[in-house]
Amino acid sequence: MSKHVDGQIGTVAALVRSTFLVNAVYADSAREHGLTQQQGQLLCVLMAQPYGMSELGAMLGLAKSSLTGLVDRTERNGLVQRKPDPQDSRAVRVALTRRGVKLADEFYTETCRRVEELTSGFAPAERDALAALLGRVVTDNKVPTVFMEPDPVR
Predict the structure, then answer these.
(1) pTM for the complete prediction?
(2) In this structure, are residues 35 and 107 in contact, taking their beta carbons and an 8 Å threshold?
(3) How far is CA 41 from CA 37, 38, 128, 140, in A?
(4) Do residues 60 and 52 lie in contact, with contact meaning Cβ atoms separated by under 8 Å?
(5) Helix residue spans in the chain (DSSP H)
(6) I want to staple 29 with a disulfide (CB 3.0 to 4.6 A). Which of 35, 79, 93, 111 is the partner?
């Protein structure tokens, strides 16, 4: 295992460790809003628009049975609802309820604040550079839009 002598870590370790950091922040925020991390992800995805089950499964990386259980639990909590798909009478689309919209907005706003706080010691140019580099990683690897860009006015 190779280590950097000057105390810096390499790209792989930095990306993996930052993933753990962001996941922990996300999980804490979800828990404080009475959600599981997966429910928080589902609400954030649905903020943009309703989706069909197969689209949600692909975006969230979940098997059909896992996604069905997640949607069932979130629906029982009154946060999402299944609606008939206007293009396919055999399919459903999952949408946020009014309560789900409110909670999703609160969760999203707080989670954005907490993640943004992770780089509070950075100069604006450093933040821009980090965003540009990570943006390339995400784009080059065709990561689905599972979390919208925060509105700067929030």
Answers:
(1) 0.84
(2) yes
(3) 6, 5, 25, 22
(4) no
(5) 11-32, 37-46, 53-60, 64-76, 98-117, 124-140
(6) 111
Residues 89-106: tens digit of each pLDDT = 888 999 999 999 999 999
- Bridge partners of 93, per DSSP, are 52, 83
pLDDT band, very low/low/confident/very high, at 6 (cuts 50, 70, 90): low
Mean pLDDT of the chain: 90
Residue with tokens 């798909």: 85
**Pairwise CA distance, residues 74 & 96, whole Å:** 10
Mark 14-48 as b/e (b = at least 16 C-beta within 10 Å). eeeeeeeeeeebbeebbeebebeebbbbbbbbbee
